[in-house]
Amino acid sequence: MKVVIIGAGSAFGSRLSVDILSREPLSGCTIALCDIDNSKVCTTRNYVQKVIDGNKLKSKVIAGTDRKKLLKGADFVVIAVSIGGPAYFDNPYEFEMDIPRKYGIVQTVGDTVGPGGIFRALRTAPVLMEMVADINRLAPRATIINYTNPMAILTWVLDKYSNGQVVGLCHGVQGTSKLMASLIGAPYEEIGYWTAGINHMAWFLKFTHKKKDAYPRLYKAIEDPKVFKENQVRFEVMREFGYFMTESSRHLSEYVSWYQHQQNMLKPFVIKTKAIKNKRQAWFEDMGVKASSAESINLVRSHEYASGIMEAMETGEPMRFNGNVMNRKLIDNLPPDCCVEVPCMADNMGIHPCAIGSLPEQCAALCRTNVSVQSLTVKAIMEKDQQAAYQALLLDPSVCAVLNLKKARNLFDELWKAEGNLLRYYNTPTFAKHSQRIK
Length: 439
Prior knowledge:
Elements: E1 2-6, H1 11-21, E2 30-34, H2 38-54, E3 60-64, H3 67-71, E4 76-79, H4 93-102, H5 114-138, E5 143-146, H6 151-161, E6 166-168, H7 172-183, E7 191-198, E8 201-209, E9 212-213, H8 215-221, H9 225-230, H10 232-241, H11 249-252, H12 263-274, H13 280-286, H14 306-315, E10 319-326, E11 339-347, E12 350-353, H15 361-383, H16 386-395, H17 397-402, H18 405-418, H19 429-438
Parallel strand pairs: 1-2, 1-4, 2-3, 4-5, 5-6
Antiparallel strand pairs: 7-8, 8-9, 10-11, 11-12
Helix pairs in contact: 1-2, 1-14, 4-5, 4-18, 5-6, 5-15, 6-15, 15-16
């Protein structure tokens, strides 16, 4: 088995490599690490080699900056990249946070929705489209595993162009289910759940302890003011919509319109996001690995799904996980062919998403507010259509809550100008003609 990790200079490179190496059925695999930063990818390779040597494994690790030299014969390709600059500090990320703030929009993370999420998608998707063209040519049977945000938009685009299967992975379900278990005081191995929706807005439709409904205990737990305050946004949404959601209060506050009017609540979230700069340990904690174990050469496995999917597809032993896939008759009351997050099964025949039926209508309605933005952003990318990108911004919940049309246009134009070099993909004769028409 051969796995190529593109963007391996990030925390994903080392962490997913150890996850793979921790699974005995994958012994003897080749891990190919790729990153445009040679120094970072060499550091990751050296660490992974220490893990292999320290555990006397038969696996092999190689590394380089040219993905075309690494892709040939890959069975799995993991994409975990940040295009244009660091993911959560410096430009263009600072443009995407600071320019909207000038117009009164506070984004707490800015990587999935809001002006930041839209422009991150616009600058990232063209590069991913080049990647998938190389994968189609050099590893046509490879399964693509996407970790890059904005998850739904980019997985949607990758699926449009890939010859093989595409799945987007997040750790919201794993992290939230562990939180829910702790809130009701139950051992994690005794709880059950059934979760579906869209990325960062998936709903725990069922939550059980020893096969009994545990939602009453969850509602009881949040009667404690201290508990409630720790996750206020999520608990407020649960009270009104009836179901708990996968995303943290910090993140969720920007997927809905209501909290732009409570910006004092958002400021600590923004400070926490900016504190991520140069703190790789924060990433490992988010992936389910204690900071003290993050750089260990021991085979400490995270709660990321990727290595489990690989094992299931190699051995045929089924594995259930939540993945981001296209809505091909999976959720009836979300638009067909949008990107949804649903339970999936993996085995040696591939990845099999589970049909959910309909979400509770109130949950589907809230998801649709984000799906509309995603759909127009995908249209903008695939058709090189600036007006569609602007329409996506107009429909974004945070923008709707704060700006009129004129201010929204000024914000859009300022962001477009700031990121001009990263958006040159859209500067074609077809695009120029269309841009003239819409002025």
